[in-house]
TrEMBL record:
Any GO molecular function: DNA-binding transcription factor activity
Species of the source: Rodentibacter genomosp. 1
SMART domains named among the record's database cross-references: HTH_LACI
CDD domains in the record: HTH_LacI, PBP1_TreR-like
The protein's name in its UniProt record: Trehalose operon repressor
Location of the HTH lacI-type domain: 6-60
Alphabetically ordered keywords of this record: DNA-binding, Transcription, Transcription regulation
Any matching Pfam family: Peripla_BP_3
Amino acid sequence: MTEKHYTIKDIAKLCQVGKSTVSRVLNHDPKVNETTRKKVQTVIDSIGFKPNRSARAMRGAQDPVVGIIVSKLNSSGESQTLRAILTALYRQKITPIIVESQFNEKQVAHHLNLFKQRQVDSVIVFGFSPLSKDILQQWQGNMVVIARYFKEISCVYYDDQGAIHALMHKLHSQGYHHIGYLGIHDQDETTGRLRTQSYLDFCHRYKLPPNFSLTELNIEAGYQHCARLSLPIDALLCATTSLAVGAVKYLQEQKLMCPLAYIGQNPLLEHFVPNLISLDFGYEQAGNQAVDLLLAQIRGNRDVQQQLVSFQLS
């Protein structure tokens, strides 16, 4: 069971005083009546209350700081989301501390502990499989997770299955019936399993022959695994931008260029590759929504919220 998150409002209710009185006690205001100060301080000590640093900072008491744990800094999608987060935080005069988990649960736990030691009580975490909710729920401050759905934690997540279905529908509606698919291993819940399942479901529904290969999340893997797809292929769908870049290289070398669709957006691909179908997955939107949710928590809203990011087909 997670520990209750007490607020200044809770303490004021327990002490039967106003919130402003509690704030003055926390800020060591000498004008507070000594009897009242002792009563409030006793309650604060008994429940182990620690003032929300971010909330106090936004009222000008100290410099505001938010911790951000990204999975991988060179990820195209995460980079777009991170840029939106930083822009929104800078607008609020909040300083970010950015660290990288490298898809390692232990690193996430380490970074959260580091933030706690530095009295950073508000974090944004880029979720990944198999990141456990138990690790995240040990955090006692404000938190928003991006890319993974958690019922018990505020999060901003993507429509992985809907995006693949939309791309498959567009290719199929253009008359393509031998659609190859380059995806990510099923150990990855979102980018991997959910997207692959959506591809297979579409093939089953429209009686298309499944033709897919699952691999790692990098350009070289896209290049190598494109060769493993069976011929004929009259169109190709890639689960990520990185796989699409590798696939384009292979197809060009083999002079097998065919319509290519992928999740994400890449200016170079769009400039040099004909018959390209891209999908704006909402990375920037996710960053803005994550900051909005975190700011609401900092201001005292403890409601757990899940927000689905919408995508836009080009």
